[in-house]
Specification:
The chain is α+β, with helices and mostly antiparallel strands and 103 residues long. The chain contains 1 helix and 4 strands.
């Protein structure tokens, strides 16, 4: 199996209390190209994606007020054959900024 992970950070430039509804600003953080899992339930690249997101968060110090969050998109491909169609796509796994630990 091959797994691709996109990491984005979204936040609001306009406070919710302003009464103005503005779409969230979305910043790309990282893109893991389709990578083989080698049959492991916990492949090593998962920790690398997490560490990269944590480093970005600590160095960038982005806005963290609600609804700021990391959004992860995960796509799973078959490792067999030449098909480029995904087996599974999860568009938005969300980690709210308030739940992120600072080291």
């Amino acid at each position: 199996m091959l797994v691709k992970i996109e990491t984005r950070y979204s936040y609001s430039l306009v406070p919710a209390t302003s009464g103005i509804e503005v779409p969230l600003t979305v910043l790309p953080v990282s893109l893991l190209a389709p990578t083989i899992t080698e049959g492991s339930a916990e492949p090593t690249f998962i920790g690398e994606v997490g560490a990269l997101a944590q480093d970005w968060f600590e160095q960038t110090r982005p806005v963290t007020t609600q609804p700021a969050a990391f959004d992860f998109a995960v796509t799973v491909f078959s490792g067999a054959g030449n098909s480029t169609l995904p087996l599974l796509r999860i568009e938005q796994l969300t980690l709210l900024a308030g739940n992120i630990k600072n080291d």
